[in-house]
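Task card 7
Instruction: Convert sequence to structure tokens.
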Amino acid sequence: MADRTIQDADGSIQGGDGDGGVNGIRTFPFPIELSVGGVGMQVGPMGPHRTWHADAPLHRVHRIDFHVVMLFDKGPVRHMIDFAEYEAYAGDVLWIRPGQVHRFSKFSGYRGTVLTMQPGFLPRATVEATGLYRYDLPPLLHPDAAQLAGLGAALAQLRREYKDTTTLPLSLHTAVLRHSLTAFLLRLAHLAASSQEAARGQADTTFTLFRDAVEKDFATNHSVSAYADALGYSRRTLVRAVRAATGETPKGFIDKRVVLEAKRLLAHTDLPIGRVGAAIGFPDAANFSKFFQLHVGQTPVAFRTELR
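Output:
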């Protein structure tokens, strides 16, 4: 089943009391008070009345600082992630990572199991092994029958351990949850990396280093040559690696990340257009507007107005 990715043009701004987040975007923290025993994760059935915070309707665009994994029993379900809309069916998985913006569909019936996890709940070695912060991987995953059976069994075991708060003291209960969660996430990470594009990108060290450097410095560095110099590669080597992993040029990869952050700021803050541009490396507002219009097809003002 092919992914359906549709540019989103009907968002609205979330309310609520989330904290400031990066660049002034209001970000909702993990709702630790809603988890059993106050542990750094939750797992349970999806339902129409789930929310992170009482005054933050999920059908409004919002940003979270924790992981969300949804395994669907029914579909189709339309869900917006980072201004693209995905359509999921029974057996599909959606993986939303910290810092990504998303919105639940008002008109889709969400049925299945949802897992949320607080950053820091798992040790660093597990985080690296499971690729928890691989933002280049697609959020919508299509497991085959064997993969789905494995994921379902691991998730069912995790749900049983999560609900069992009487067999073990809290410290051991939490340790068992971490091990069960790791088992599930290792399966999920293998699924995410098994597509041809993801596996190719993960195997290429040059692209991996470039991708991580862009994620760290895109707000201040838009120069392919500067990234190549910092990483110790020739520009030609970098071009070959990025093309092989993504089909794009390094400049196109950088620009796409900058545009995404501009969209996030325009959607989630009331910053003046000039300050939005400055936050992503355009001290001149006119240059930012030209850049944005070139890549999005409309001005920053028009994009923000459409979302409001």
